[in-house]
Amino acid sequence: MNPPQNSPQPAGGALIPHNANPLAVYAAPNQLNTELDDSLHLRDLIRIVWKRKWWILACTLLGVTYLTIRTLMETPLYQASTTLQIDRNAQRVVDYKDARGTTEDYYDDGSFLQTQLELIRSRQLAERVMETLNLDIDRSGRPTQAEPPAAESADAASKREDWIGRIMTTLRKRSEPSVKDRQVLDRESVLGGLRGSMSAAPVLGTKLVRINVIGADPDLAARMANTWADAYIASNLDRKVDASAYARKFLETELTRAKTRLEESENTLISYTKQKQILNVEEKSNPAAQNFSDFSAALAAAERERIKAEANYEEARRSSASAKELLDNKALSAFKENKAKLELEYQDQLRTYKPTHPRMQALQAQIENAERRIQEEIKTVSSSVEINAKAALDSAKAQEERLRSRVEASKRNILETQDQGIRYGILKREVDTNREMFASLLQRSKELAITSQSNTNNVAIVDRAQTPLFPFRPDVMRGVMTGLLLGIMAGLALAFVIEYMDDSIKFPDEVERFTGMPLLGVIPRVSVAKATAAQQATEDPRSALAEAYRSVRTALQFSTARGAPRTLVVTSCTKNEGKSTSAFSIAAALAQMGRRVLLVDADMRNPTMHRMLGMDHENGLSNILSSNIDPIAVTRKTKFANLYVITGGPIPPNPAELLSGDNLSRLIDPSATNFDHIIFDGPPILGIADSIILCNRVDAALFVVESAKTRKAAIRNAVRRLRQAGRVPIGAVLTKLGSELAMYGYEQQFYYYGDKPELVKTA
């Protein structure tokens, strides 16, 4: 068939200049500065969980199975509980303080109950229970066993002097007890097991405490719980008795000392009053205090006068020429008036005589003499003002010093008169204090003698432990739930780790969010068992692949105000991402609309279009770019209507230089060919400069991303290279999307009128 005819070329074979910035028409102004969004959203977490659901399910089943089996293999344990009521104070017969000094309940900050819990868990109480139940092992009559030879050899090895010996010594001391007595070790073993089997916990919101004992023998567990409660009550009573006995002994000693101190302080006070002849010392108004107050007020007034005099003196020294005395001086006023008259006469005579005239010189001399007398008078008045201010300042200072000495003398007099009263007050307060202390100790001693005779206790048993009927552990349901929770957590952690290691774009909405480019279409992954992807997209119009590329064609038509770009390059980050199939399918979809479409294999390093169409590539794009051959001469008609192709041609040694030449203009120039659209199957962007050069020569570029394979780092580098060259792709196409696509709203089944055809099975 005949290929499309060339349009008339300009005279002389001149090339038509190409637009320097063709992609600016299709790129949004703000896209060049768009930051790539690599953040994690909630929908991404849901997708990760759904995608790795089998890993999560496997980990969950493994965790449930393991913990269930482990739980069932545990030894059955029984729990016996005794409930105690612990009040802060016991019931009182008389309203006296006990040996601990408490009389009534007050705000409980939790420390009292926590203290009682620690007493229940104490070692002393555990030893009491162990001795009551005869749980300790008596090995007093058993001969001490000799250390095994292995222990002797280990001890000998640890006595080495080098660094290995020091390490072995440290390890041995951390793993071996310091006591070698078997009886002590056996007792500690029983005591440790006993304390480990018991737990005490408060009942929230009450004064109740439960003592729980867990053991393999249900009857022994109940006896241990009841014995523990009885031992705690007995221990509590013993502490009260011991505290009362100690308090009585202490009070008796302190009473003797208080009586002695009271007698000594009373004798000292009586002797002092007799020696100083003190009848009554009280704080009343006296002449010395009144004089001190008067002198202090006079001193304050003198200080104010001195400060005022200092200010006047400084003012007289700083600005004497403007003092009030200068303004009020009559002689100075007369001198200034005389000078003014002379100056006025001088100005009148100046109209008649020159300044050198003898009369004018005489007037000038009179004016100078008047000025001199004015300055002398000012100096005399200023000196007088300064002398008067200095005299006033000296007088104020002298008055202040006299008053200050009188104030100090009055103060000493007051201190001397108060000394006797202070000493008397000290002795009197000591007597009063000793008397009150003696009375308080005497009263407390009598109260304690009464309260110590009562045996009331603040602890009571509410419920005694009964022999448990069923095991407390193992709890199978708890083990299953724990295994379920741990399995889910492990599965989620494994899923997120695997997903984190998989740095690729997998879902459609990630494309726009990460690349900043609009998503023009989603291409599903198809099975190639019966036909290639290109064949399914072009030969089966009802397949999911064909419908997806028709959606891309529709998006291209609405991408610009003039419809689909006339020249379009399809590129990607690396090879095998579906760009050749996409270029061929888009070209075929445009041809189905009746447009004349030229498909150009521009990947001259690895041409593939001829294999897809079953052609040779002896002549192709490399021939056009390296010579003056007419593009129509190498254009071939395909089996699809309105679709023409130019293969890659022989592989050249320098594809980038060929694409940079002027011969490409003869192919893409609208006046050179009459194709409606020219689709270029471009080479990958990373690693070579062919696509960057080609993008600068055509109208628009389409970026192809393979789902779950193209890494985000590669996309970031590719987009950065395009933007550094001033080019932004018109959009992106996500290819080879798996069957999990339907979960997120991207269906792979399409509706047709009539009977439903047999579709190609997708993977």
What does this structure look like?
The protein is an alpha/beta fold and 763 residues long. It is built from 23 helices and 12 strands. The strands form 2 sheets. The chain has an 8-stranded mixed beta sheet with strand order 5-12-11-6-10-7-9-8, sandwiched between helices. A 4-stranded antiparallel beta sheet has the order 2-3-1-4. β11, α23 and β12 form a beta-alpha-beta unit. The longest helix has 94 residues. The chain is flat and about 140 Å long.
Give a brief description:
The chain is of the alpha/beta class. Helices cover 53% and strands 9% of the residues.
From the structure above, extract its key features:
single chain, 763 residues, alpha/beta, 23 helices, 12 strands, disordered C terminus
Strand content: 5-15%
Which structural class do you get from the secondary structure elements? alpha/beta
> Low-confidence parts, pLDDT < 50 over ≥5 residues?
1-34, 103-107, 138-153, 741-763
User: Please, what is the average pLDDT?
Assistant: 78
Task: Let me know the largest β-sheet.
Answer: 8 strands, mixed
Helix content: 40-55%
User: Span from first to last CA?
Assistant: 39 Å
Please give the count of helices: 23
Rg over alpha carbons: 56 Å
Which sequence of strands runs across the widest sheet? 5-12-11-6-10-7-9-8
Shape: flat
* Number of distinct beta strands: 12
Please give the structural blueprint.
Elements: H1 42-51, H2 53-72, E1 78-86, H3 111-120, H4 123-132, H5 149-158, H6 163-175, H7 182-197, E2 198-202, E3 208-215, H8 218-276, H9 287-318, H10 324-328, H11 330-350, H12 358-451, E4 459-463, H13 476-501, H14 508-515, E5 519-524, H15 533-539, H16 544-557, E6 567-572, H17 579-591, E7 597-601, H18 609-613, H19 621-626, E8 636-637, E9 643-646, H20 655-660, H21 665-668, E10 677-681, H22 690-695, E11 700-706, H23 712-724, E12 731-737
Parallel strand pairs: 5-12, 6-10, 6-11, 7-9, 7-10, 11-12
Antiparallel strand pairs: 1-3, 1-4, 2-3, 8-9
Helix pairs in contact: 2-13, 4-7, 4-8, 5-6, 8-12, 9-12, 11-12, 15-16, 15-17, 16-17
